[in-house]
Structure formats: C-alpha cells, structure tokens
Amino acid sequence: GLKRMYEDGETAIYYITLENENYHMPEMPDGCQEGIIRGMYKLATVNADGPHRVQLFGSGAILREVSRAQALLAEKFGISSDVWSVTSWTELRRDAGECQRWNLLNPLAPSRVSYLEEQLSGVDGPCVAASDYLRCLPEQISPWIPGGLLTLGTDGMGRSETREALRRHFEVDAECVALAALHQLSQQGKVDKTTVAEAIKILNIDPEKPSPLFA
Question: What is the mean pLDDT of the chain?
C-alpha cells in the first residue's frame, strides 16, 4: 500500500483493522471483488428441504454468527437462506440515495437502479440484518429492501464476561438471528406462530430476559 501510494502516486486509501478476536478468515469467493468495493456480496447459499427462504445480512465479526444461523435454520427448521456479507452499510446507502436523488431530478430519463436493488432483484424471502454496531447502521438501507429489513444490533449497555454472553445479551448471536428470521416468516404468514414459540425453546432463548436497552 505504501509503495502504491507514495512511490507509484496512486490515489488510494489503505487501512488495517485490528480487533480483539482471532478467527479464521476464509478465502475470497470468486467474482466478489465488485461487491466488496460496492458494499455487499453473496457469501453462501444453503438449500434446505422446506419451501421457505430468508435473506440474512451480516458484517464484521457478527457475520460468523449469521453464517451459523444459516446452518441452524436449515438443520433444525428446514429453512433455506442466502447469506450476504456487508462490507459497507454506508456505501450501500450512499449509492442508493444518489440513485434516488438522480431519479428525483430527472423524471423524464430512465430510472437508475442502485447496486443494492440490483443485487436483491428477484430474491425470495424476508430480510434480517445483524451487526455489532447500533441498529441504526444497517437500518439505513431498509428503504431499498423488498419488504423492509429487521435489524439486530448492540443498542444498550453491555456488561458480560465473554463474547458469547455479550452477543446473547445484545441478541445478535446465531440463535437470535435464526429466531428473527422465523419471526419474519411468521409475519408474512409463511410460518405458524406456534413454530416460532417452539423455536424459542429449541434455541434456548429466554423470552423473559431483560432488554439490553435497559439491563
């Protein structure tokens, strides 16, 4: 990066992110280079035996919880899903907002379609997003998500001794992501509410747990 910026004179920004959790970084999937730059790409698809599908969005360390939720949905509930790795919620919002502005100012020209809308064109199922940031970060792309977006984030105060306990406290772990997906399917009339109630038991989620906003 230093060579390309200072010796070759390339206009670019390079940065290294250091976090306090070690985990395996998978190989970059083929054909995802544009998506990485523009804000998101499809990471994985799992097809289960059941008729229903959900779209799961994750970023940062919580992407691993979203991937684990994908496995839970398939194995325990027969729900198919696509997992999207979001590299920048803000870039997706910026591009979608710019397309919206251009369409507003150019009513006689063919409408522009944002990258986010292009990627989600024709996808099946409700959408759930999880990150270890406040919910308002992923919520900024909700206007361009078919059917809206249910977001999970770390709003509130966290006082837990382990990452696992902290993620359950904030309700952004895999089990809570899976439950959110089942809830959204229920809201669309595709899954019975008794199935969601049973899932709470199967996933070992305490419905009486204090809200992280006030705990």
Answer: 93
